[in-house]
Known about the structure:
Blueprint: E1 2-5, E2 8-11, E3 14-16, E4 21-23, E5 27-29, H1 38-52, H2 57-71, H3 83-90, E6 97-98
Parallel strand pairs: 5-6
Antiparallel strand pairs: 1-2, 2-5, 3-4
Helix pairs in contact: 1-2, 2-3
Amino acid sequence: xxxxSATHNGWKGLLYDGKxxxxxxxxxxxxxxxxxxxxxxxxxxxxxGLLSWSDDPEKALNFAIAASALKHTIPGDFxxxxxxxxxxxxxxxxxxxxxx
Length: 100
């Protein structure tokens, strides 16, 4: 997390699979609506990503960080996004700037 202010953060993740390190795409989250659930969204996204793309840990990591970045734009502790929205953000929708 790069903390620019309470409502503006840079966001990316790292993954080590036992032999390789992976670094996710960087997201600029501004404004942050609610941080609660961001870690859970990352963990759930990583589990989903590893199950969906077991041969591509980098894609799994990028799915997790995109899901977590989107969660920061939603009030409350539940991530109300679907797989299509996460994949859209991963493909570059919003040019790395998370907006809802």
